[in-house]
Amino acid sequence: MNKKTISFTLNGESREFDIDPNERLLGLLRRNGFKGTKYGCLEGTCGACTVIMDGKAVDSCLVFAFQAHGRNVVTIEGLGDAGTPHEIQQALIEEGAVQCGYCTPGMVLSAKAMFDETPTPDDETIRLHMDGNLCRCTGYEKIWSAMKKVSAKHERGGKR
Ligand code: FES
Ligand code: FES
Predict the structure, then answer these.
(1) What residue ranges line ligand 2, CB within 6 angstroms?
(2) What spacing in Å lies between the alpha carbon of 39 and ligand 2's midpoint?
(3) Ligand lying nearest the CA atom of residue 143
(4) Which domain-ending residue is among 19, 54, 78?
(5) Which atom of ligand 1 is nearest to the CA of 60?
(6) Owning domain of residue 38
(7) What span, in angstroms and rounded, lies between the C-alpha atoms of 15 and 36?
(8) pTM of the model
(9) Is residue 19 within 8 Å of residue 65, measured between CB atoms?
(10) Residue 24 included in any domain
């Protein structure tokens, strides 16, 4: 198969990757160590593979790797870590919204794309942005509480 070389900004760094023409972005990320991007349904319904591309949350299982060429991609590795969680991660922890954690990276990235666009989203906006991210553990109420908590923090003028 013909290999191609593409380049894009990944978590703030300019990177170059050799790809197969029919490879998906999800596979490219994971084989290069970005394993916070999860395999789930592989058909665009669960959101476990969500990354941010040019400011929008996308299912990386549906994006060909070559489509990332020249773009700006953010994975969960580009956000906080255990010592310094991003505010969305912090809110999910505080609200007890993480159980097995498999859905969490995608959930965080969908939320980040939403809050970057709309710092204080109304309920409908939260539903619209988060409805592509499925969670088999939490029943969603705690995730909902975490989203409302971040929104309330922004409302009070808290740092994003
Ligand atoms: S693995 Fe991509 S949406 Fe489920
Ligand atoms: S915490 Fe387990 S799938 Fe969401």
Answers:
(1) 98-104, 135-138
(2) 13
(3) 2
(4) 78
(5) 2
(6) 4-78
(7) 18
(8) 0.95
(9) yes
(10) yes
